[in-house]
Amino acid sequence: MVQKSKRPPVTKIDAPVPPKRRGRPRAYEPDVALGKALELFRKDGFAATSLDDLSAATGMNRPSLYGAFGDKRELFIKSYRRYRDDARAAMADVFRNELPIRKRLERIYAVALDIYLESGPRGCFTVMTAASEAVHDPDIRAMVLEGFGELDKAFAACFRLAKQKGELSGSADPTVLAQLASATIHTIAIRSRAQVPRKELEAIVNGAIDVMLRA
Fold first, then answer.
1. SS3 state at 6
2. Is 162 domain-assigned?
3. How many domains does the chain have?
């Protein structure tokens, strides 16, 4: 009797496991990373902030940084745009609020000081950081000048309305007063960066308002 050979057991082959996809970690959030870069540029400036610093602050390696934001200059510009958007949003309501002119100016400067002193004496990104780069970079210079122009126009609208209401003398020039008001913003930005106490900054503001409203 011929003995049948036993067939070896059939091994069941599982379906191939798809390779794990590589890329940015799930925790990566562009807005959060950009905010971290903004904080670093605002604290240390453009030249003193290295790509390694940015990588450490954002938790992203260099290839990921380049892929998401471009080179260091592009990341700086995007950070500056983010700062301007945030500052514009913070100031928009108080500029629109038609309070009596003194109260209105006091509120505007109070909000500005909140921004400049937030998380330490950072000052104004435009005045303290972007303006330095504007000397050599025409794109950044255009952004800085645009920011100055927007602020002047916003203050001029406040003074024009105050003049219409009779809160200012008939000889008051809203354009000139707006430039003085903007200059006061720049002054407290610089001094706040130098860690001048808030009470002293508020005294400067109050004195400047007195001068502007006597014009």
1. coil
2. yes
3. 1
